[in-house]
Design goal:
Its EC number is 2.7.13.3. The chain is built from 9 helices and 14 strands. By secondary structure, it is α+β, with helices and mostly antiparallel strands. The protein folds into 3 domains: about 200 residues, no CATH class; about 60 residues; about 150 residues, 2-Layer Sandwich (Heat Shock Protein 90), CATH 3.30.565.10. Helix 1 packs antiparallel against helix 2, helix 4 runs antiparallel to helix 5 and helix 6 packs across helix 7. The longest helix has about 50 residues.
């Protein structure tokens, strides 16, 4: 069974949630590291101040004895097991604060002169069954005494419990607030996603209404990003309905057209006509019905078109059509001129393009005296829409009177109701132009003084 794809809402919410969790996680890690470094710097400064305080109150006697200050910089140095310890190591001399009683503190490593180093956490024995850890700040210096220079290393120790408690308090607050921020931001994201995807839900409801036949097309109230989609869907809906209407019209026209030949045949059969007369009448009416069926099928085939087709170059097809027409009308010596924009493309079926240009050019060749002009231009548009197309065919013939234009472009019910000389060909052109939601105009040519047929195919999304 195929796995159901996640909805757009679920995809965006999942992606946003993962991004938010990753961001907050990295932020929390960075803040945690920054706090640790800041706390270590503060610890180092505090221990360094203890060292300086001991240096200020420390003195070596004449006999080499060490005299420490009466009061320690912090009362914890005088309380055993307080977590704050001090020690001094010199040549033949060792001193430790009262707080280190019963503890074996880690001895400082050899340092360079005036070097100060913070180490830790370091494990040591507390004199019981277990052990503890401390941070150690060590400093090496040379103390000038009456008996000569005395090298010494002074160390201050602080239990890691206090540092760890500070870090735990900070981490609880940090991750608590970040967790609360994550929950709030996820709720905000859900609301934002619901609001931002509202146009898609509206589009889904409108499509459902179209499918159930409640509305005929999608509304135009959509964001700019959805306009190409809604425009294409509306165009597809209109194209399908136009194709269905055309199919119904074709069947209706075919049925209506066949009524007369069938009625004639029936009347002949009922009239008791002779065999020879009946054979002649049947042959004539069958030929008539064959012509009607061929025309209606041809017109029905030309009524549909592919809405999204590969672009076709116009000039090569026009040259092929003109080459054929020049052979047919060789006796007239008609010259056809081209003014075709090289960027012009016909987005549709090849048969539609050939019928469209072929019928217009054949009409022009038929009525032209010497010259025919084919002009193809691109109608520029803004945005992402497909450009429109302007096709103009002009001749230097007698032209068409303005009062006959409207009657010329009317769509008849049957082919034999068309105007002689322009009817079927221009009716086909009219049908093709209508299928592409275009416009056909007939006017006087200002350049050749004959008729000018202008076809405009509008831009689409």
């Amino acid at each position: 069974m195929a796995r159901r794809a996640l909805s757009l809402h679920a995809r965006q919410l999942l992606a946003a949630s993962l991004g938010l969790i990753a961001f907050l996680g990295l932020t929390g890690y960075a803040l945690d590291r920054a706090f640790q470094e800041t706390a270590l710097v503060a610890l180092q400064d505090r221990l360094q101040n203890y060292v300086k305080a001991y240096y200020r109150g420390m003195e070596f006697m004449r006999n080499g004895a060490l005299l420490m200050p009466d009061r320690a910089p912090d009362p914890r140095f005088e309380r055993p097991g307080s977590g704050l310890y001090a020690g001094l190591v010199s040549r033949g001399l060792r001193w430790e604060s009262a707080s280190s009683l019963g503890r074996v503190l880690p001895q400082p490593e050899p340092l360079k002169l005036n070097e100060m180093r913070l180490d830790g956490p370091l494990s040591y024995s507390n004199g019981g069954d277990g052990g503890e850890t401390v941070y150690r700040l060590s400093h090496t210096t040379i103390w000038e005494t009456e008996n000569g220079d005395m090298p010494l290393t002074f160390s201050v120790y602080e239990d890691t419990a206090q540092f760890d408690r500070q870090l735990q308090v900070f981490r609880r607050a940090l991750w608590g607030y970040l967790g609360l921020a994550a929950v709030l931001l996820l709720l905000v994201q859900m609301l934002v996603l619901r609001w931002s995807l509202q146009p898609l839900r509206l589009l889904e409801r409108e499509l459902d209404r179209v499918q159930r036949g409640i509305t005929a097309r999608l509304s135009g109230r959509h964001p700019a990003e959805l306009e190409p989609i809604t425009g294409s869907i509306n165009a597809l809906i209109e194209s399908e309905r136009a194709h269905l209407d055309q199919s119904r019209n074709t069947l209706s026209d075919l049925a209506h057209s066949l009524k007369t030949p069938l009625a004639v045949l029936r009347s002949r059969l009922e009239s008791g006509a002779g065999v020879d007369e009946l054979r002649s009448e049947v042959s004539a009416q069958v030929q008539r019905m064959n012509e009607i069926v061929s025309y209606q099928l041809s017109r029905a085939a030309r009524s549909g078109h592919a809405l999204f087709s590969a672009p076709l170059e116009i000039e090569p097809r026009a040259e092929e059509i003109v080459a054929s027409l020049e052979k047919v009308y060789a006796g007239k010596g008609v010259l056809c001129e081209f003014e075709v924009d090289p960027r012009a493309r016909f987005h549709g079926e090849l048969g539609d393009l050939q019928e469209l240009i072929g019928n217009l050019l054949e009409n022009a060749f038929k009525w032209a005296a010497r010259r025919v002009l084919l002009t193809v231009k691109v109608e520029p548009v803004a945005g992402n829409r497909r450009p429109g197309l302007l096709i103009s065919v002009e001749d230097d013939g007698p032209g068409i009177a303005p009062e006959n234009v409207e009657r010329l472009l009317q769509r008849g019910v049957r082919g034999d109701e068309r105007v002689q000389g322009h009817g079927i060909g221009l009716a086909i052109v009219q049908d093709i132009v209508g299928a592409y939601r275009g416009e056909l105009r007939v006017e006087r040519s200002t350049e050749l003084s004959g008729a000018r047929f202008l076809v405009r195919i509008p831009p689409v999304f």
